[in-house]
Design goal:
Length: 155
């Protein structure tokens, strides 16, 4: 199975780096955009669509809700990649708005690494990575803790 391509859309550089690290370490190929408008531009430039989108809600130029609605509108009638919204917005109405826009899953920041990897693996249908992430959650361990245990060093 070839590595899946994920587009992380967030205006915060630290969040993009965190998602790149956690998802990249899990074996997926990560690209980044700083807002919904840039994400749509990257999508338009690609020959192959991304396999998954991880998007914030609150961003300049085009927020996550507008991005997901535009994404869903442009690919109407075709197989659509799943969207995971990850936001500091923790109210149930925020998640409901994300689902209404077309998101498939919703996590509240800061998303723990094992939960992020598990959710992405489930959305991608990646059984092996989902099982590993679920085992990490059961042990209270994520990719960073697993690396520290293996090397004796913190990431």
């Amino acid at each position: 199975m070839s590595a899946k391509n994920i587009l992380v859309v967030d205006d915060a550089a630290t969040i993009r780096m965190y998602h790149r690290k956690m998802l990249g370490d899990a074996g997926w190929i990560i690209d980044e955009a700083v807002n919904g408008m840039e994400a749509l531009e990257k999508i338009a430039q690609r020959e192959q669509p991304f396999d998954l989108y991880v998007s914030d809600i609150n961003m300049p130029r085009m927020d996550g809700y507008a991005f997901v609605k535009a994404l869903r509108a442009r690919t109407e009638g075709t197989l659509q990649a799943p969207v995971l919204m990850v936001s500091t917005e923790a109210q149930s109405h925020d998640a409901e708005a994300a689902f209404a826009a077309g998101a498939n899953a919703y996590l509240v920041k800061p998303a723990r690494s094992a939960e992020l990897v598990l959710t992405v693996a489930l959305l991608l249908g990646d059984r092996q990575r989902a099982l590993r992430a679920a085992a990490d959650i059961a042990r209270g361990q994520g990719p960073a803790q697993r690396a520290k245990a293996a090397t004796g060093r913190s990431l």
